[in-house]
Amino acid sequence: MTTTNRTAVTIETTIQAPVSKVWEYWNKPEHITQWAFASEDWHAPKAENDLRTGGKFSTTMAAKDGSFSFDFGGEYTDVKENKLIEYTLGDGRKVSVLFSTMGDSTKVVQTFETEEENPVEMQRDGWQAILDNFNRYTESH
């Protein structure tokens, strides 16, 4: 495998919910399937999550019209409950998610390494759309 220079991109959102709820909605498969997609013409029909250092996760993301689907997954490298999740994706890219309590709200800051197929801006927009979808789902349930 060739070593590449990957760009690290950081996105964030503030959710009007306590960190315990945000953590639960981020990590439980029954919630992941409700928010892990970037637009209304996609969905996440399946999610599995073994949330522990060394545990693996996988979420199937699919176009609702059945034209395309893929599994988004990897292995956790560090998990600190209600604070931090770090993982490595199947293609070797690293991701970290930081959860910070801000009074009655929770700030979620996600940093991911980009892949080389798509423009960085497109990747940033896609990941931010999923994070925004997570915010909407968590605040409305």
Quick recap:
This protein is α+β, with helices and mostly antiparallel strands. It has helices at 19-27, 29-35, 120-140; strands at residues 8-15, 42-49, 56-63, 69-80, 84-89, 94-102, 105-113. The protein has one domain (8-140): 2-Layer Sandwich (Alpha-D-Glucose-1,6-Bisphosphate, Chain A, domain 4).
Structural features, described:
This protein is α+β, with helices and mostly antiparallel strands and 141 residues long. It has one domain (8-140): 2-Layer Sandwich (Alpha-D-Glucose-1,6-Bisphosphate, Chain A, domain 4). Helix content is 26%, strand content 43%. The chain has three helices and seven strands. A hairpin with a 4-residue loop joins β5 and β6 (94-102). α1 (19-27) crosses α2 (29-35). It is globular and about 40 Å long. The termini are far apart.
Task: Provide tags for this entry.
141 residues, alpha+beta, Alpha-D-Glucose-1,6-Bisphosphate, Chain A, domain 4, seven-stranded antiparallel sheet, 26% helix, START-like_dom_sf, SRPBCC family protein, ASHA1/2-like_C
Uncertain runs with pLDDT below 50, 5 residues or more? none
In helices, the fraction of residues equals: 25-40%
Mean model confidence by pLDDT = 96
Compute the number of helices. Answer: 3
Number of domains: 1
Number of strand elements:
7
Biggest β-sheet description: 7 strands, antiparallel
What's the end-to-end separation, in Å? Answer: 43 Å
The string of secondary-structure elements, in order, is: EHHEEEEEEH
Indicate the topology.
Elements: E1 8-15, H1 19-27, H2 29-35, E2 42-49, E3 56-63, E4 69-80, E5 84-89, E6 94-102, E7 105-113, H3 120-140
Antiparallel strand pairs: 1-7, 2-3, 3-4, 4-5, 5-6, 6-7
